[in-house]
Write a structure and sequence with these properties.
This protein has two helices and two strands; from the N terminus they run βαβα. By secondary structure, it is mainly alpha-helical. The protein has one domain.
């Protein structure tokens, strides 16, 4: 799952309540809406290592 920083706890809680306590979560900065494209692309590129990590788990 992907989520932004302020929603990390909520995302983890939702996964737990859905019976997915070991859900793999990638957290990116906030906000996505209203943020310029170059910044969002930078955040996405920075999240690649974490994504590869959780996919390999």
């Amino acid at each position: 799952m992907f989520t932004t920083e302020p929603f990390e706890v909520l995302t983890t809680s939702a996964a737990d309540s859905l019976g997915l306590p070991e859900a793999r979560i990638v957290v990116v900065p906030h906000p996505l809406g209203g943020t310029d494209q170059a910044t969002v692309v930078g955040w996405a590129e920075a999240a690649v290592d974490r994504l590869v990590e959780v996919l390999g788990a």
